[in-house]
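ok trying again, last paste got cut off:
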Amino acid sequence: QVQVVESGGGLVQAGGSLRLSCTASGLTFEDYTMGWFRQAPGKEREVVSCIGRRGTYTSYADSVKGRFTSSRDNAKNTLYLQMSLLKSDDTAMYYCAARRGTFCPRVGAVDYWGQGTQVTVSS
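nice, full thing came through this time. structure:
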């Protein structure tokens, strides 16, 4: 049975940092392109970042470029999102997503979702 579990969310002041983690089990992690998504109350879920299967390819939403960095450790089946210079607009539930193959996960094209971890940025 596949499980995808996020952790590391919390309450942080504006300008601060957080690191999210996502650990997957029950699948061959290196076969999956991984992504981070977020959803704020009343808004649609949006993509934050994508990282290729070997970690050499990354892409980011314009709103987080230069502030967020995604990485992965295939030996640990774990995906990370380092978030810096956090803003109140970053407040959302953050989700990890896995898509088998070489294409980035999209909201309508995800094989496995995590349950989410809440990030709240106070101004």
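cool. The chain has a mean pLDDT of 98. Residues 90 and 121 are 7 Å apart (CA to CA).
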